[in-house]
Structure formats: structure tokens, C-alpha cells
């Protein structure tokens, strides 16, 4: 597998985008909805799956696309082909506040495992597939189910994390315990499992769920401070319950209500 060699630059702080520089006939693949802007002369083409097996038969193409459905993604991805005779640029934006993480697969043994919705874009030739959990506990309680995404190849890929990003280098046998939703991804050597928090008070009143993830080294782990599911839950919880914008929001009555409940929705 030989992926296209792309150059890139990441812009921004909280709302980032990645600018990909393509040589003539170079291609970058991206998730639907991540496109931001591109130079004139770059052609967009919708493809089945990740496009890493475009020369294979129809069955292999359908299988590649079907794997993406299992991870909750679209059947299709978009390829951006530089048809100019000079270098051109295409940009792809993060879907919510956080950081874009560049993954050089040659430095991670050709494979990186990540959350099923974190992939943003990659060089043509990088395969985006599925990683099945072989452990029942992880599948039932891991937050990501039995399936995570795996990115394979020898090129550059880009994944997105929410909030602030933490990169942890685990030594052999070293264990890191993480909220299941806060995992962005990890290298293939890391052993990933689920552990019960334990204790009646922790389980009933802790507010952190019943399980956390245990990641055992050696390997590299990326952790996010703000998973999108947590952000969405807070937005839903703070939305007006009456189905409107709540006319009492700025009134004395509304203020008294917030004093009583402490406005502790955040």
C-alpha cells in the first residue's frame, strides 16, 4: 500500500481546519460534510468507502462501503483530485470546538485505532475500516460498542478531538484509566478494556457512569476533554423545556428559579 504524500498545515485554536497541499494528480479523501474550501481546478468525486480499493471488484467496493455503515458513517466519501499542473490546496474543518490531530501512520506501525466518528480526512491510499472488540465487556459497556474505526496504511490521516487534547505515552505495563467517551484513539499495541467503577455510592450517585476504560501500554493514547456526546447532553439539558425560548429568561421570576436550582445545569 502506497499512499499519496501530502503536505498540510493546521490553522486555528478552538475551531481548527487543516489545509492540504496537493501536487498535480494527488488525491485526499474526506468525510462528507468536512469540506471547507479549495482552489480552482480541484475536482470532487464521490466514491464508495475510502477509495483505497478503487481498482478492485464491485464486491470488494460494497464490502468496504458496508464496513463504514457499521461504524455509523455514510456509504460514500469524497475524493479531491488536483487536476492542475501546479500545486493546489483544499481545506477541511473540524465539526465542533477541539483539535485536529495529524496521524503519520508510518510512525505508528501502519495502524491507528480511533473513535468511529473522529476521522476527518486522509491521503489517498489510506484505508478506513472497522476494528471489532473481542471482549464482551468492552463491547457492551465501552461506549463505542463492539466497533471502533481503524486507519491503516503508510500515509497521513487526520482525526478530530473535542475540547483540549492530551497525548499520553504509556510505558510497557503502564495503565491509564479514562472516561469511555474521552478516548480519541490509540496505537495498535495498546490493550483496551473496560473496568467496573465499583461501590454502591459510586454507581448510584457518582454521576460518572458505571464503567471506565483501562488502557495498558506500551503505546500512544490520545484523550479529549470534551466528547461531543457530553457537549450535546449539556446543550439539551439547558434547552427550554416549554418548547419555546422561555420568556421568563430575563425576568425576576426566571432569576428566582435559577437561584433555587443553582443554575447548575453546566
Average pLDDT value?
Answer: 78
Would you report the number of β strands?
19
Spans with pLDDT under 50 lasting ≥5 residues? 142-146, 259-266
Order of helices and strands: EEEEEHEEEEEEHEEEEEEHEEHH
Distance between the termini: 47 Å
Main structural class: alpha+beta
Radius of gyration: 21 Å
| Fraction of residues in β-strands | 35-45%
State the helix count.
5
Percent helix = 10-25%
In short:
The protein has 266 residues and is of the alpha+beta class. 17% of the residues lie in helices and 40% in strands.
Helix and strand topology:
Elements: E1 7-11, E2 17-22, E3 27-30, E4 35-38, E5 42-48, H1 58-70, E6 76-82, E7 88-93, E8 98-104, E9 111-114, E10 119-123, E11 127-132, H2 136-141, E12 147-152, E13 156-162, E14 165-170, E15 175-178, E16 183-187, E17 191-196, H3 200-205, E18 211-216, E19 219-224, H4 228-238, H5 252-261
Antiparallel strand pairs: 1-2, 2-7, 3-6, 3-10, 4-7, 5-6, 8-13, 9-12, 9-16, 10-13, 11-12, 14-19, 15-18, 16-19, 17-18
What can you tell me about this protein's structure?
The chain has 266 residues and is of the alpha+beta class. It has helices spanning 58-70, 136-141, 200-205, 228-238, 252-261, and strands spanning 7-11, 17-22, 27-30, 35-38, 42-48, 76-82, 88-93, 98-104, 111-114, 119-123, 127-132, 147-152, 156-162, 165-170, 175-178, 183-187, 191-196, 211-216, 219-224. It has 5 helices and 19 strands. It has a 6-stranded antiparallel β-sheet with strand order 5-6-3-10-13-8. A 6-stranded antiparallel β-sheet has the order 11-12-9-16-19-14, covered by helices on one side. Strands 1-2-7-4 form a 4-stranded antiparallel β-sheet, with no helix packed on it. The protein is globular, with a radius of gyration of 21 Å.
